[in-house]
Design a protein that fits this description.
2 copies of one chain form a homodimer. By secondary structure, chain A is of the alpha/beta class. The first copy, chain A, is 32% helix and 27% strand. Chain A has a 6-stranded mixed beta sheet, sandwiched between helices. A 4-stranded antiparallel beta sheet of chain A has the order 2-1-4-5, with helices on one face. The longest helix of chain A is centred in the C-terminal third of the chain and has 16 residues. The two termini of chain A are 20 Å apart. The complex binds adenosine-5'-triphosphate (ATP) (2 copies) and magnesium ion (2 copies). One adenosine-5'-triphosphate sits at the interface of chains B and A.
């Protein structure tokens, strides 16, 4: 599903010193895999996730998504892939501030011009334990509740690839376990899951763990017994 | 330093069902303590922290801060207490988006009309490992780097009370340990530290752990050997 070769990402902000966020990444992820990405703060995890999720383009190197060279695509075509195939949980949630939890979750259905199924959105919120918070705006939700709205939004279109950047970062252990149980169910149904986490007990729910350090992949291991 | 009695916080949003975020909390925290607050998502931790940090007022009950009844104070007086005595690390960081890391950290010094010590701000950023990111804006920083700017900002005025809402939530284990080492140093210097965390190994750096559940304190224990 995902194949990157010689992937390099450099951020340059005007006259500022450049930041090489990804140096030379080679990586393949097959359909149906369950991968955890770990590594120090600033090591390039979110950068890699944004490229995988077709939200950003590499500076150099190749990214084949489902066999298609993403580097050559127009913004419209990238948006189409994102909306149809990928569900993305952002590290900072990126919820619309003046919008209820329910409408935040409905949004991806709008983009897909699918029949806007309010019932589907409600069920997605129920699944993450927010059946009593449909009409709250983000500022009326706790940190962990906002994170769960972001998760529900990523799942409502039933995407084949789910990318989650620290999806349990704001959650207590029990809520975190409930979210991981959802991801494991989806993986058993054949969905591909890629998540970033800094907690080893969360990474252990995955079948493969990749470590990043200073923009490079330093380790890539299958987990035993999974 | 902190004494709350019969503390109750109810959020009512117009015609929406009310949310009782805190039911009836009684709690005392002495100068120089190191307290960790834990509990499920939505259990009232951030609400309690905002009241302690003089950022919000309870619906009922009494809050004595350093012997003063906070309920009776004007907004100006509350702001004065906050700026002079309290350093607050927010769960969502609350950084100014169009502002460099350095200027975000300098801000509390401005509010205090202290001599704006750029060197002090730089040292605060160095202490959290961001000496190479002074001029980056939040969107040019990783999640964990933004969190560390928020921590540096809370520490730059050398407050006597440090309140940190999930200060290691976005940090890998090593960066999290470095931050906890800073908090432990400050506590050994006599500062009072209150932090919210959902990770037990972080809570174990504190000397006392309080558990919240559904807006109530369900457990309050000294940690052995600390
Ligand atoms: N402005 C508001 N209006 C209505 N309800 C609110 C508001 N702010 C918070 N709440 C509700 O109050 C409850 C407690 O929120 P709080 O932010 O204190 O939880 P928390 O323990 O910090 O959770 P987390 O671990 O997820 O950060 C939650 O159920 C939340 O939905
Ligand atoms: N727009 C940008 N301009 C300049 N530098 C950037 C930009 N975005 C990110 N960076 C830098 O690129 C590096 C990698 O960032 P990234 O967000 O991928 O890290 P991360 O591994 O997700 O970290 P964390 O665990 O803290 O979330 C960081 O050092 C960061 O400062
Ligand atoms: Mg990140
Ligand atoms: Mg909170």
């Amino acid at each position: 599903l995902i194949s990157v070769t010689n992937l390099r990402k450099v951020y340059s902000s005007g006259d500022e010193v450049e930041v090489v966020a990804l140096k030379d990444a080679d990586l393949t992820i097959e359909h149906g895999e369950f991968v955890a990405i770990m590594g120090p703060s600033g090591s390039g995890k979110s950068t890699l996730m944004h490229i995988f999720g077709c939200l950003d383009q590499p500076t150099e190197g190749t990214y084949l998504f489902d066999g298609i060279d993403v580097g050559g695509l127009s913004d419209d075509k990238l948006a189409e892939i994102r909306n149809k195939k990928i569900g993305f949980v952002f590290q900072q949630f990126n919820l619309l501030p003046r919008t209820s939890a329910l409408d935040n979750v409905i949004l991806p259905l709008l983009y897909n011009r699918e029949f806007i199924d309010r019932e589907k959105a409600r069920l997605a919120l129920d699944r993450v334990g927010l059946s009593e918070r449909y009409h709250h705006h983000p500022s009326q939700l706790s940190g962990g509740q906002q994170q769960r709205v972001a998760i529900a939004r990523a799942l409502v279109t039933e995407p084949t690839l789910i990318m989650a950047d620290e999806p349990t970062g704001a959650l207590d252990t029990k809520s975190g376990d409930e979210i991981m149980a959802i991801f494991q169910e989806l993986n058993e149904e054949g969905k591909t899951i890629i998540l970033v986490t800094h907690e080893l007990y969360i990474a252990e729910h995955a079948k493969r763990v990749i470590f990043l350090k200073d923009g490079e992949i330093v380790s890539d291991k299958r987990l035993k017994n999974r």
